[in-house]
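Translate sequence into structure tokens.
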Amino acid sequence: QVQLVESGGGLVQAGGSLRLSCVISGSRFSAALVGWYRQPPGKQREFVATITSTGTTNYADSAKGRFTISGHNALNPVYLQIDSLKPEDTAVYYCNAVGLRLGSLKDYWGQGTQVTVSS
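Result follows.
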């Protein structure tokens, strides 16, 4: 089995920073792409950023400038640094990993970590 666990969320004031972590557990899984997504209260889940095993990063327009995705050791763990937090960043942040397990392409989701930004 493969499990993704997000951590690092919390309650912060506007202007603060957080670093979220995504840890992948599983002895026979190699991630090719890891992404961060978020779901604000009352809204649908939205794309934030991705990183590939070759180091290519992509960001949502809303994330450019204040968000930084990074990964080490075959994208495990993967981090999401958020600076200058705004109240509109309040959301549950989810990690998603796509990769190979025993030669087959698989897709896994974590259960999310809550980020709450107060004004």
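Note: The mean pLDDT is 96.
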